Amino acid sequence: MEHDVLHILTPDQAWHYQVVPKNVSAHAIELYVDETVNGADCILELEMLLGKKVSLDRIPTTEIRKALNSHYRREHTERSGTMSMISPTDDFLMVMIHEAKALGSSDIHVEIYEERCRIRIRINGLMVERFVIGKADYPSLINKIKIMAHLDIAEKRLPQDGRIFLGSNGTNKLDIRVSILPTLHGEKVVLRLLSNDTGHLDLYQLGFSAFDLNNYLEGVKRPNGILLISGPTGSGKTTTLYATLKLLNQKTRNVLTIEDPIEYTLEGINQVQLKESIGLHFGSALRTFLRQDPDVIMVGEIRDPDTANMAIRAALTGHLVLSTIHTNSAWGTIARLVDMGVPSFLVASTLNTSVAQRLLRKLCPHCKMQQPLDPNLYPRQFRPFREVAFHYVSQGCDQCFNTGYKGRQAVYEVIPLDMELSDCIKKGLYDVNSQLAERGVRTLAENAFDLFERGDTSLEEIYPLLFNY
Q1: What's the pTM value of the predicted model, to 2 decimals?
Q2: How far apart are CA 289 and CA 360, in angstroms?
Q3: 461: which residues sit within 8 A by CB, 6+ positions away?
Q4: pLDDT tens, 69-123?
Q5: Are 272 and 308 in contact (CB under 8 A)?
Q6: φ, ψ dihedrals at 113, nearest 5°
Q7: What Cα–Cα distance (Å) separates residue 328 from each residue in 233, 245, 254, 354, 360?
Q8: In degrees to the nearest 10, what's the CA dihedral of 32, 35, 40, 43?
């Protein structure tokens, strides 16, 4: 449904009359309406309100509610709703940012196309369209963002990066990373919301099973070595690292971090922001860290041979090093480090724990629907760990923005390195499935399957993990 049709009605009007536009012409408008509404009264009032001839197409209550929630979403607050078509006011940018934060959004996307401009927010990993604005208002909104981020409003041809800091204390304090990209029809802006609230960073609440958490804590308690967390972008690696740092943050320890960006501010920890433009990158920061008498070092990401070798050196000299790396599995981290030029005997000597993690969307408890499970829905080569007769599928309701999902949960694969596994690394033996099974190490697929079996998530969510199993 096109937004130029939708904005004929305001959210208040759509919800009051329980209608959604279907077709609009110069002199007439056809509306979908709740089948329980008094049609005659509704037509009379809407014709006076809209100045057009109105006809109604009755549909079930469940369908009209779904359409209203999708196109005229409103919050369960004092605000009546979100307009489909808006003209940015002086405080619109701040309202948009605070609304996104209240909804638990991680990113705001401000986009321009040939015919229209829109604002989308990312909730639980999914993009949700929130506003549509007029093309005439778009440049002023972009300029306001640039001014707040201390960027050049005259530069429209090159990408720009900046930051916005809002609030001075408490839970309203926000650090916003701004990225501006020139596109075909204008500049696209992405605002990454980085909250300084660390209250939710609890290692015991992230999703570790009791067995995996025990193995992970054993690695954290070691005085030296490298603890690596692997996974794709957006899999929650940084959150796990911060929760670990929060646990390690004691008066008796000197903790140093080099990050890009600093997503949470932790009192008592010395945090350094990466600035590659002036030569402050992971490798150079690590060299300086070793002269700062550290106990624990956190490196935001091992992304090149220089950083990898410096992390190994730090671990060899008696420090606990925490970092992330991009690999598909916990054991695949070893091959990645070797590919970066780190000798296998050094990897075997320093790596104490390897972790892989993913974030899975949780089904909305208000609208998920139970169905019999057809075994043919599994990936072709996958053999289920246990027989499951029923599963839940996503539906969508006003509680979950019609996505069918509400919240996310991390799943982990934790491999503690012992002498036997270290010997396998030295010998270049990478097929260690039998050894891991003997130690009770559960794979990502097994832990994800547990969530699916309990009805917490859908087969669609865990499918990629089963496919790779």
Answers
A1: 0.75
A2: 35
A3: 360, 361, 448, 452
A4: 777 765 443 333 344 455 566 678 888 888 888 888 889 999 999 888 999 999 8
A5: no
A6: -130, -175
A7: 11, 24, 32, 12, 15
A8: -20
